[in-house]
Amino acid sequence: MESQSVIVITGSTRGIGHGLAKEFLNNGHKVVFNGRSQEAVDKVLEEFKDYSSQICGVAGDVSMPDTHEKLFDEAVKHFGKVDIWINNAGIPQENKPFVELKIEDIKRLSDINIYGLILGSQIAANLFLKQGYGKVFNMEGFGSKGRIMKNLTLYGTSKRAVNYFTKSLAKELDGSSVKACVLSPGMVRTEFLDGALEDKTTKEAKQFQKVYKVIAEDVDVVTKFLVKRILKSTKNYDRIEFLTPGKMMIKGFKMMF
Question: 92 is in which domain, residue-wise?
Fold first, then answer.
């Protein structure tokens, strides 16, 4: 890969996506930001104005094909190519049992977390095949490994789908110059997760909050790790995992003592 890569990151005006963008820019790369509102995109472009020659932004909902197409077009228009596409955009589930969720909320989460990621992967992969190279990274989350927690049924299902989809897509891309890979950030301290934990009063949720205090890492710590490995990644279906079993064991001992 060239020394200066161009990276598209959906949902990058806050949270992990924002942290990834910041780390890529700090390492001399170029970033195309995305957020649902123009206000959010303008705000992040102003925040990173010192990197004005390395950034551009596209406002748009990832459940709409036009958003992904415009992201790719703007990247090529500004920087001439796209090297890495990260499907990061996602929304949390309301703290309710699945049977109590409103139909419109079920559809919205599915549209963003599943359909949006699949749509972004297809559009990026097709354009990468035409370009002749490129890597798609899909973001995992709670539920990706099959873990279940009360009131996270829909969110966990959406993230469980990420691994199967990406692994299958990678198999279809075998033999091409395009790769499909997975990012597993573990538990990260963001307003996304903090908000999802608010008002959780069940015994299970309280126990989870105790675990969160020990296991969760700051955004900067996680994104430094992920970015370094994203840039070095060369294999298809590369699964870049921050919270490895070894790290989990060490944190488990800290939690015990």
Answer: 6-188+218-244
> For 59-77, how does the pLDDT look when each residue is reduced to its tens digit (9 = 90+)?
999 999 999 999 999 999 9
Q: Give the number of domains in the chain.
A: 1
**256 domain-assigned:** no
pTM above 0.85, yes or no: yes
Q: Is the dihedral of CA 242, 247, 249, 251 positive or negative?
A: negative
Given 155, 164, 212, 237, which residue is catalytic? 155
Q: Which of 128, 138, 172, 130 is nearest to 62 (CA)?
A: 138
CATH code of the domain containing 82: 3.40.50.720
- Would you say residue 166 lies in a domain? yes
Count of other CB atoms within 10 angstroms of residue 141:
24
For residue 69, what are its two tokens? 């197409």
Band (1; pLDDT cuts 50, 70, 90): very low
Query: How far apart are the C-alpha atoms of 46 and 234, rounded to whole Å?
Result: 33
Catalytic residue flag (residue 155): yes
Say which residues have a Cβ less than 8 Å from residue 138's Cβ, sequence separation at least 6: 87, 117, 121, 162, 165, 166, 180, 181, 182, 183
